[in-house]
Amino acid sequence: MRLVVVGNGMAGSRLVSEVRARSRDVRVTVFGEEAWQPYNRVLLSNVLAGTASPGQIRMQGPSWYADHDVTARLGVRVTRIDREARVVEAEDGTREPYDVCVLATGSEAVVPPIPGLAGERVVAFRTLDDCEAILRAAEGARRAIVIGGGLLGVEAARGLAGRGLPVTVLHLADHLMERQLDAEAGHVLAGTLAGLGVGVRLGVTITAVRADGSAELEGGEVVPGDLVVVACGVRPVAGLARDAGLAVDRGVLVDDRMRTSDPAIYAVGECAQHDGTVYGLVAPAWEQAGVAAAVLTGGEARYTGSRLVTRLKAAEVELAAMGETHLTDEDAEIVRFAHPARGTYRKLVIRDDRLVGAILVGETGAVGTLTQLYDRGTPLPGDRATLLFPGLAGPAAAESPTLMPDSATVCHCNNVSKRAIRACWESGARDVAAVAEGTRATTGCGTCRGAVEGLLSWLNRQDAEAPAG
């Protein structure tokens, strides 16, 4: 079978690796519009902050394609899909025939129609090339402006502030990350950012960006700056599918097998729309890639949707949000704790004794337990405080890997359980790098690294203490 994958980001590269892990008989060609090898887009803010280099967020080694018999056309944009001839056409004149084509074209930055956003001091924040352009511009900048206070905007602002550059976030909504957080959590997050050198202006409308990099607000106020980063969200890249006559709404429409309206073409990741939803996070993209790879290699798999958990973990900024976070006391049982001076906010949303939503800002040690309760819909303990403050259940229950069930999910991005990590350890993996290679744990958002280290420490210690024989 000739498989052509259009897009080599986090979804496309995962699909290719999943297919190759299942079969060596598929002839695989992948086109990547970016010249970079696949990299972890979740960690771009670390590159901005200077805590990681582009090489450190790379997801595959330089020899991976040759080692796995995959033809990679990096830095080559696909311009057309000829469905009748089953051929993919690229901008360099290449015509690549396929039996099955998978679209993994991802998403692109939304640039609002504000005068001046095409200026040389303005950069969108989406790709590694964008990241490098921002860093070049930041070298001579004295103050930066980030347009947009969603997840991308907060990540960009924290990254630039980490380099000592004063930042002002300009956000149209009345609190930060309004899609994931309630107003009180957004207020706590803004306070945390203020302590790190990030100013936040809420409920403001930008009328123009000046050539010097400052921004004009409605009413005439001018916010000084000489670097503008646009982080106003993303939208699916679906033009190629639309031009090919595939069914497209906001994204490319797919069924439970990730097939489009043409059974020879599949779509995965941020360009795909399943059951009315376009997912913009890495975990659903990887789930979809796994389903498509299984189906393409003769297996049985169905994608039934994903339960979203948004994570942000940068230097001194941690948060997690899941489910129905905006319900009020009239709609559900709400349990919350707020300590704005310490940058802490915790909220549980409970209905019918099940966790249907949660927000954690600041200390996020409880996120693993809450995510499992949210995913599985299991009944909650009567003392809700033990969920907000795991230490109340006793240090052993809160910290000891021995009390963590083998079925517990440690890495939510890759759905890696304690059982899988233990099996990897028993096969010889003794450090995080080896476990990551064997299970992919820690290769998503990276927030599970501490838990993996704890499990390995416990397993290694048990091994050392075991009696001879």
From TrEMBL:
Secreted among keywords: no
Domain NADH-rubredoxin oxidoreductase C-terminal, first and last residues per copy: 309-373
Keyword Oxidoreductase set for record: no
Record's keyword terms, sorted: FAD, Flavoprotein
Pfam families, per database record: Fer2_BFD, Pyr_redox_2, Rubredoxin_C
Domain of life: Bacteria
InterPro entries listed in its UniProt record: BFD-like_2Fe2S-bd_dom, BFD-like_2Fe2S-bd_dom_sf, FAD-bd_OxRdtase, FAD/NAD-bd_sf, FAD/NAD-binding_dom, FAD/NAD-linked_Rdtase_dimer_sf, Rubredoxin_C
Entry-linked SUPFAM superfamilies: FAD/NAD(P)-binding domain
One GO MF term attached to the UniProt entry: oxidoreductase activity
Start and end residues of each BFD-like [2Fe-2S]-binding domain: 410-457
Record domain FAD/NAD(P)-binding: where: 2-289
Cofactor(s) this protein cannot do without: FAD
Listed PANTHER family: NITRITE REDUCTASE [NAD(P)H], PYRIDINE NUCLEOTIDE-DISULFIDE OXIDOREDUCTASE DOMAIN-CONTAINING
Protein name according to UniProt: NAD(P)/FAD-dependent oxidoreductase
Organism: Bailinhaonella thermotolerans
